[in-house]
């Protein structure tokens, strides 16, 4: 068992770390391949096929990346590689230039989905419900009818109808809370 004080666990000789120095540069070791193994044979390397030199350019012309059309580099084995002839060099006629830009005709896209007028009316009534609670009830009813029409595909404006229904419910809840507070305060005599 060891001594709990830890004095007997320490070595008697102190440890001095070696001095720091620059590490030696890495030099890979020479690799000696294993002795010849009779079971492993390397396949013979094929000799590269000679490639025909490029034909001379016609007098007065020079090679540009767009003017040189190379042949296919993947010919069948044993077949010569053919190159396509150079395209003829055409000069621009006097006074000629690039063709003028012609704007393509306007093609209208598919028609945008029309918002349902009932959904818009429901949103207006729901917002006006903040001032008078009666229009919020009308906006809520109209919003549900407009949502039904959009679900049947009779019109667009699903987002507007949804907003009208949500605002209608919020306004009705606020008015209900307001009148409930008035009734409770009136019953307790706090409105005197």
From TrEMBL:
Domain of life: Bacteria
Name used for this protein in its record: DUF4190 domain-containing protein
Coiled coil, from the record: none
Pfam families: DUF4190 (PF13828)
Membrane-spanning segments: 117-147, 159-187
Organism of origin: Amycolatopsis pretoriensis
Biased composition (Pro residues): 16-26, 49-58
Keywords: Membrane, Transmembrane, Transmembrane helix
Lineage, broadest ranks: Bacteria, Bacillati, Actinomycetota, Actinomycetes, Pseudonocardiales
InterPro entries recorded: DUF4190
Residues covered by the DUF4190 domain: 118-175
């Amino acid at each position: 068992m060891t001594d709990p004080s830890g004095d007997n666990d320490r070595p008697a000789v102190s440890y001095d770390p070696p001095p720091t120095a620059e590490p030696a540069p890495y030099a890979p070791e020479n690799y000696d391949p294993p002795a010849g193994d009779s079971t492993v044979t390397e396949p013979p390397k094929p000799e590269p096929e000679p490639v025909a030199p490029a034909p001379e350019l016609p007098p007065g012309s020079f090679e540009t990346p767009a003017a040189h059309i190379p042949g296919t580099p993947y010919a069948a084995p044993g077949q010569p590689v053919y190159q396509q002839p150079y395209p003829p060099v055409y000069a621009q006629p006097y006074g000629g230039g690039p063709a003028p830009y012609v704007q393509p005709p306007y093609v209208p896209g598919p028609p945008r989905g029309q918002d349902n007028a009932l959904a818009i009316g429901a949103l207006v009534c729901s917002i006006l419900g903040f001032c008078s609670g009666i229009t919020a009830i009308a906006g809520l009813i109209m919003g549900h009818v407009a949502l039904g029409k959009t679900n049947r595909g009779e019109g667009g404006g699903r987002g507007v109808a949804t907003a009208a229904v949500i605002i209608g419910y919020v306004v009705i809840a606020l008015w209900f809370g307001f009148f409930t507070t008035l009734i409770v305060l009136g019953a307790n005599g706090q409105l005197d």
